[in-house]
Amino acid sequence: MQAAVFLDRDGTLIEEIPYLHDPLRVKLVPNCVEALGLLRGAGFKLVLISNQSGVARGYFKRSDVDAVNGSLADLLSAGGERLDGMYYCPHHPDGDLPEIAIRCRCRKPGPKMIFQACRELGLEASRSYMVGNADVDVGAGNAAGCTSMLISGTAQADSNADWIGPDLLSAAHWILDR
To answer: Which residues are within 8 A (CB) of 41 and not within 5 positions of it... i.e. 6 or more apart?
Structure first.
C-alpha cells in the first residue's frame, strides 16, 4: 500500500471562489505545481478530496464540477503535474435537490472519500496526509487516520490539525522533512 497526500480543492490547490462553477475562473494557488512536484518526487500519490455542496443546493450541476476539475487538471498538466484521483461529494442536507439533499458519509468531515480512494488506488490512510484549508478537511483526515494539515493565513490554536501553516508549498516541505 502506498502513501498519499489527499488535497482539498478550493483554497488549497486553486484560489478560493465560493461555489466556483466556471472553469475559466480556475487559478492555481501560488507554487502549487512546485509543491505537487516535490510530493510526487518523494513517491506520494496525489488525490483531490472535495465537498461540492453547490450541486445539492442547485447552484450548479455535476457537469460544472467536472468542468472545473478538468480545468484544474489542464493547468496542472501545463506545469508537468497531475492528480492520481479526483473525488467529490455533491450532497448537503440543506440542499434543494431531494435526491442529493441528504446526510452522507462522504461529505467531509466524513472519511468516506478518503477510504474510497484508498480502496481504488491501493493507498494506506495511516501513512498518508490530508491537506486542506478548513476544519472539515482536518476532521476527514483525522477520521481516516491520516496526518491532518491545515493551510491557514492565521494560526488556529483550537484546530485538531497535526500541522498548521501558511500555504501548500510549506505543507509539502513539512511532509518531506518528516
So the answer is: none
pLDDT > 70? residue 155: no
Residue 23, preceding peptide bond in cis (omega within 30° of 0): no
Residue entry with cell 496526509? 129
Tell me: the pLDDT tens digits for 31-40?
999 999 999 9
Query: 2 φ, ψ to 5°?
Result: -100, 155
Q: Catalytic residue numbers?
A: 8, 10
DSSP state, residue 56: T
| Distance separating alpha carbons of residues 145 and 130, to the nearest angstrom | 9
Q: Domains in the chain, ordered, with CATH?
A: 4-177 (3.40.50.1000)
Give the single-character DSSP code of 87. Answer: E
* pTM assigned to the model: 0.96
